């Protein structure tokens, strides 16, 4: 009998590129971060893949934010912070002596929990980074492109000269994403980008992330497990480890495809956390 | 909230256990109806299905609510899905028992054949055993011996084939033809019950292993056991 033709590929499991087809953008090997003598995260080994959304989940104090900040050298801004181990970005040692932290942050943008637009016009917020970096050619076009990519253009196109502070929280957050996108980064780091937003604005940000992954690699720290389950391709679970000397440090417990983490995690600690039994 | 959620999951499983026990009684009832050609018992068995349906419907209604409110994940998600499917299988088994009772009513008073009745009894007992094993895998979260269920299903299939041969042999005898045809359908019902029991075992395996696999496949030959 002739097989029934189907538009859906029945041989494919999940929606992700197969393991061998994933391209690692970040490669962390034995990465530990210290604040003074305190170890905040210990011995993290992880590959973060290009044009996928990777979620970092875990209980408070497990080093999620510390870890994401190491990815664009934001930890440099904390005087007592120190990193050991190796963190490569597209094969280059991110903490190598000749790497310019400002250039790193242009290529690897960041969006924070609380929308933090500058007290300037909507237009100037997006143009700000471009001007600083001397990307002044076709400025108006670049601003429009970034606002379109952040799904904000239609809402603000008639009031670009208005203050950004007059936008709603959700719009402000999308403006911050537009600002991050404007300088044409390769990676966007998002630290709890929707935790201060209502469900509709949250949904808009999640849809936007899904759109953005066509062109960017996204890493998101989130406390909202359902958000991780909804948006992320890969999920990393960080847990808290108490060493014999009483130091509490974050460790990477499990890292796998999101579907696996939420249907059949390998580690009991992950299962406990995602089901809410503890953590 | 966590406590309430745990209680709800436990209640679902308790309901399923109750349903499982009732379904076992229904199979036993169906076998008794066949054996004794008892009209009254047949009606009782048909009415008894309401008891099973009540549990089936309660589980069926509670699950969407639980999914919506508690969004279970990981092992708990698999547990809820396993309960959802096992519930469905139990309900189907109960319906087959009702069909057997109805067939027995239609065949009431017709001349019977001892060998056929014995084969049906044998098939039915095997079905009960399989259902018990499948459910036990689930309750114990243990599926180490998935082949045991498949092995148990083989005598059912064999008995079913033998029985059909016997029934065909009875066919030319007009006085027994109607009864034989009714029993052929009853035999088919019992055979299906065995298949549902295997499916229940598969759900237990899914719960423990985290991935779904069929123990047997209707369109391919099952792997021969090495003896």
Q: Can you walk through the features of this model?
A:
The complex is a heterodimer of chains A (279) and B (227). By secondary structure, chain A is an alpha/beta fold. Chain A has a domain at 22-116 and 185-275: 3-Layer(aba) Sandwich (Rossmann fold), CATH 3.40.50.300. Chain A has ten helices and ten strands. Chain A starts with 23 loop residues before the first strand and ends with a helix. The model of chain A has no long low-confidence stretch (mean pLDDT 91). With 227 residues, chain B is mainly alpha-helical. Chain A binds chain B through residues 225-226, 229, 261-265, 270-271, 274-277, and chain B through 2, 5, 71-78, 210-211.
CATH class placement of chain B: Mainly Alpha
By CATH, the superfamily of chain B comes out as Phosphate transport system protein phou homolog 2, domain 2
Q: Which topology of chain B does CATH recognise? A: Methane Monooxygenase Hydroxylase, Chain G, domain 1
Distance from N terminus to C terminus of chain A (CA atoms, Å) equals 54 Å
* Largest sheet data of chain B: none
How large is the count of helical segments of chain A? 10
What letter string, H or E per element, gives the SSE order of chain B?
HHHHHH
Q: What's the count of strands of chain A?
A: 10
Weakly predicted, low-confidence segments of chain B: none
Per the principal axes of the C-alpha atoms, what is the gross shape of chain B?
elongated
The value of Rg of chain B in angstroms is 19 Å
Instruction: Give the N-to-C terminal Cα separation of chain B.
Output: 52 Å
What's the level 1 CATH class of the domain at 22-116 and 185-275 in chain A?
A: Alpha Beta
Shape of chain A: globular
Q: How much helical structure, as a percent, in the residues of chain B?
A: over 70%
The secondary structure category of chain A is alpha/beta
């Amino acid at each position: 009998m002739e097989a029934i033709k189907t538009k859906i590929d029945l041989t494919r499991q999940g929606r992700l590129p197969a393991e061998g087809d994933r391209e690692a953008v970040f490669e962390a090997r034995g990465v530990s971060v210290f604040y003074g003598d305190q170890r905040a995260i210990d011995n993290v080994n992880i590959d973060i893949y290009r044009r996928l959304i990777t979620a970092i989940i875990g209980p408070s104090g497990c080093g999620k934010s510390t870890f994401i900040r190491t990815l664009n050298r934001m930890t440099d801004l904390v005087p007592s912070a120190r990193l050991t181990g190796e963190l490569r970005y597209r094969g280059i040692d991110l903490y190598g002596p000749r790497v310019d932290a400002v250039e790193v942050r242009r290529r690897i943008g960041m969006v924070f929990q609380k929308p933090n637009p500058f007290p300037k016009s909507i237009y100037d917020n997006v143009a700000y980074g471009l001007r600083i970096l001397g990307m002044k050619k076709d400025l108006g076009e670049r601003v429009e492109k970034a606002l379109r990519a952040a799904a904000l253009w239609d809402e603000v196109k008639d009031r670009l000269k208005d203050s950004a502070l007059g936008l709603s929280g959700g719009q402000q957050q999308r403006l911050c994403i537009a600002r991050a996108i404007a300088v044409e980064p390769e990676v966007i780091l998002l630290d709890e980008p929707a935790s201060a937003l209502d469900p509709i604005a949250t949904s808009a940000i999640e849809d936007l992330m899904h759109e953005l992954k066509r062109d960017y690699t996204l890493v998101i720290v989130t406390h909202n497990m359902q958000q991780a389950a909804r948006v992320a391709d890969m999920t990393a679970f960080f847990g808290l480890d108490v060493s014999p000397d009483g130091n509490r440090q974050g460790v990477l417990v499990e890292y796998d495809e999101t579907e696996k983490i939420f249907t059949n995690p390998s580690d009991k600690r992950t299962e406990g956390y995602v089901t809410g039994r503890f953590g | 909230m966590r406590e309430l959620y745990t209680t709800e999951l436990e209640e679902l499983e308790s309901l399923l256990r109750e349903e499982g026990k009732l379904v076992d009684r229904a199979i036993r009832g169906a076998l008794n109806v066949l054996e004794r050609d008892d009209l009254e018992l047949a009606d009782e068995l048909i009415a008894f299905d309401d008891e099973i349906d009540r549990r089936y419907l309660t589980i069926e209604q509670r699950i969407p609510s639980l999914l919506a409110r508690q969004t279970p994940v990981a092992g708990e998600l698999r547990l809820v899905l396993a309960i959802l499917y096992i519930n469905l299988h139990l309900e189907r088994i109960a319906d087959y028992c009702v069909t057997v009772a109805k067939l027995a009513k239609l065949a009431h008073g017709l001349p019977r054949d001892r060998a056929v009745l014995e084969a049906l009894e044998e098939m039915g007992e095997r079905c009960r055993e399989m259902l018990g094993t499948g459910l036990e895998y689930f309750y114990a979260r243990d599926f180490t011996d998935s082949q045991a269920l498949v092995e148990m299903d083989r005598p059912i299939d064999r008995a079913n084939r033998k029985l059909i041969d016997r029934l065909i042999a009875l066919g030319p005898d007009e006085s027994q033809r109607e009864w034989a045809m009714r029993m052929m359908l009853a035999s088919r019902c019992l055979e299906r019950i065995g298949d549902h029991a295997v499916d229940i075992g598969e759900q237990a395996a899914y719960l423990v292993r985290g991935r779904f696999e069929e123990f047997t496949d209707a369109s391919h030959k099952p792997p021969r056991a090495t003896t």
